[in-house]
Amino acid sequence: MIERINNNQMPDMGKESSSPKSKPAAGSINNAADASLEVSYASLIEKAKSPQPENIDAVERAKQLLMSGQLDSPENIRATAEKIIEFGI
Hints:
With 89 residues, the chain is an all-alpha fold. 54% of the residues lie in helices and 0% in strands. The protein contains five helices and no strands. The radius of gyration is 35 Å and the shape is elongated. The model has no long low-confidence stretch (mean pLDDT 75).
């Protein structure tokens, strides 16, 4: 059978898990680094600057309606006010 088994070969696992944690490096104690996220909105701004074709058509149609005075009717004003109340600005 197995004659030579050394019970001291395995380290005591309990000692390792309960041992105090090592101290952080001296430089990291006084580290005043800002942990806030840096967000770049440049891509969103560029996307907003380049109008989509469907938006150009809608803007042109709205401009024509404003210039013709068709949007100044009491019915349109009331409908717009109701949509603002319903959907918000």
